[in-house]
Amino acid sequence: MHKLVLITIILVGLSSCWLDEKYLVGELPTTPANLIDINSEYDDYNSTAPSLGETFPLCFSSNRHSYGKEFNFVYKLVSVKFSTDTGLPSVYNETDARLDVFHRYRNLTSALSRTNTRANEFGPYLISTGGRQQVIAGVAEWHESYYLLYANDENGNLDIKYIQNYDDVSFSVPTEVKFLNSIYDDAYPTFNTDNSEIYFTSNREGSFNIFYTAINSADELETVLSDTTVHNIIKDDQLSSEFDDKCPFISENLMVFTSNRAGGYGGYDLYFSKLVNGSWTKPINFGANINTEYDEFRPIVRPQEQFSNDFMLFSSNRPGGKGGFDLYYVGIEKE
User: Fold this and answer.
1) CB 239 within 8 A of CB 257
2) What is the predicted pLDDT for the residue at 139?
3) CA 259, CA 269: separation in Å to the nearest integer?
4) What is the per-residue pLDDT for 19?
């Protein structure tokens, strides 16, 4: 009898907890929302973030530090959470220095001291490769290891480069990814799902198109990026048009990018394509709910496990922001 009463009490307690949590899954808004905590009165765009975690490091291009002149990278810590009472999301700049995650990612500030120059830095692409313990002022802290790919125009045209702290506590000096670069503008590298190809954008044929090249997925990332041999660079005719197609980003079997091709809503619009049987499908415009008559630029997608839809971050110079280009987020259908 005592056991039966105890079991009943436990079940009632658990059911009351479930009743208190009306929503076990959140939903991101399907209409773009401004990242108010992050944006400035200047231009903020070209973001990147690792794919896992509800609190994550965000790096993006901004000309705020030069008061509207050259673009450099800015680092912020962002949280994406939801209320179990309403299901509504909360996306904000995390500033609580007491959190372990705050210290875990803060070494990215030293990464950006390596990348930022008096030239322009665009299109960061951040890859997490694990981490290590590091002792600072006698206290052991866990710090992440990364490869950060990006483009820089200090040579007069955009070249793809990278830094890393995979094999050292400090970040390496910027190194060119020579097999991707040309005498034209090359930028926005992104790996496909199985790391067998790198996609990027280039104007080597006049307008900006989306190109790719095969790589050996079995090689270490350092071996891949430091390769100086000539690669076969291929334009993807399904994704490219006679207009400018930029900023490819791959998340699982989904590619998102921006284009000013005919048939859009004005300026640059956001498009998506899906990988089906090894080929990308015909690009589809995200529609008037996301695109405007203004410019929508540099989309990235993060799967959000606790949400019914995925998190897409992009930039736009639409009215109603803080000024210039602002970062916006919106929920899109899960892949």
Assistant:
1) yes
2) 72
3) 6
4) 47
The pairing of beta strand 159-164 with beta strand 279-280: unpaired
The token duo for 75 is 């680092």
Nearest C-alpha neighbor of 60 from the set 117, 112, 131? 112
Pairing of strands 33-34, 44-48: unpaired
Count up the domains in the chain and report the number: 1
**For residue 62, which of 47, 72, 77 has the smallest C-alpha distance?**
72
- The residue range of the domain holding 143 is 2-332
Partners of 296 in the beta sheet?
A: 316
**CA neighbours closer than 13 Å in the CB half-sphere of residue 261:** 17
Please give the angle made by the CA atoms of 57, 58 and 59, to the nearest 5 degrees: 120
More confident residue, 217 or 21: 217
Task: Please list the residues that pair with 34 across neighbouring strands.
Answer: 328
Tokens representing 129 are 């490769």
The answer to whether 317 and 294 are in contact (CB under 8 A) is: yes
**DSSP strands (E only) in 117-196:** 121-136, 139-152, 159-164, 175-176, 186-191
pLDDT score of 53: 82
The candidate with the shortest Cα–Cα distance to 335, out of 283, 275, 290, 248, is 275
- Classify 36 in phi/psi space as left (phi over 0), alpha (psi -120 to 50) or beta: alpha
- What predicted TM-score, i.e. pTM, was given to this entire model? 0.91
Whether 334 and 38 have beta carbons less than 8 Å apart is answered as no
- Which CATH number belongs to the domain containing residue 147 in this structure? 2.115.10
The reported pLDDT for the residue numbered 136 is: 64
- 267, amino acid identity: G
Which pLDDT does position 169 carry in this prediction?
Answer: 76
Distances in whole angstroms, Cα of residue 21 to Cα of each of 14, 113, 214: 11, 43, 48
Assess contact for 149 and 161: CB atoms under 8 A.
yes
Tokens of 58: 């965000």
